[in-house]
Amino acid sequence: MDLSTTEFWIAFQLLIDLLLVLLIFFFLRNIKNCLRLSATREVAERVIGALEPLLKEADSVSKTFEGQLKEKNGLIKELNEKLDSRIISLNLLLNRSEVFLSSEVRNVAGGSDHVYDQQASIVELYEQGHSAEEIAGKLSMPRGEVDLVIDLKKKFLKMK
Question: How far apart, in whole angstroms, are the C-alpha atoms of residue 93 and residue 88?
Answer without folding.
Answer: 9
